[in-house]
Design brief:
The protein is mainly beta and 182 residues long. The protein has strands at 21-23, 29-33, 38-42, 50-54, 64-69, 75-80, 85-89, 97-102, 109-114, 120-125, 130-134, 142-148, 155-160, 166-171, 176-180.
Length: 182
């Protein structure tokens, strides 16, 4: 409530390693990953966070590299070292269900981001490329166009412009590339 005197709430337990965390857009759900699991917590009661359980649908033994919610909070994506991106339907976070994984790449995927309208997902990784996915039909995601190339080192971060017309990709090659996508 007062940013000059923050106080701890929690901790949330159940993770077995370090990973990434992200709040749903409405702030009611927190997704956190450890080395091989994505877990959800109900955050509506700030005095008693309720675990919603681990998500199913990941390939066993992969390291999770990023998690992100779509802007409407209905879809969660997680990327992994095995080159896949897994989607879940989180419209009801108490009963998330896996949607199909987005094709396999030959290298780890380090970053995923949804476009502002939630119809496109971008992924980037160790293969130095960015791939776009049409996720407007969450049950049947499809690749959009070819791979976006030009980086000479792994792509570690992605961001859509607020209007969704530009995609920025940041790489270990010390460059940021901009792509017109809208």
């Amino acid at each position: 409530a007062d940013p000059t005197t923050p106080r701890p709430l929690g901790p949330l337990t159940g993770l077995t390693g370090s990973g990434t965390v992200v709040f749903s857009p409405d702030g009611r759900t927190l997704a956190a990953s450890d080395d091989q699991t994505v877990r959800l917590w109900d955050m509506t009661d700030r005095t008693a966070f309720r675990p919603l359980g681990p998500l199913t649908g990941l390939t066993d033994g992969i390291r999770i590299t990023a998690v992100v919610f779509s802007r409407d909070g209905r879809t969660l994506a997680a990327s992994g070292y095995n080159g896949t991106v897994q989607l879940w339907d989180t419209a009801d976070p108490t009963t998330p269900r896996p949607l199909g994984p987005l094709g396999s790449r030959t290298a780890p995927v380090f970053s995923v981001v949804f476009s502002p309208d939630g119809r496109t997902l971008a992924s980037g990784g160790a293969d130095t490329m960015v791939r776009l996915w049409d996720v407007s039909d969450r049950a049947d995601p499809r690749p959009l166009g070819g791979l976006l190339t030009g980086h000479t080192a792994p792509v570690g971060s992605l961001a859509f412009s607020p209007d969704g017309t530009l995609l920025a990709s940041g790489s270990n090659d010390q460059t940021v590339r901009l792509w017109t996508v809208g």
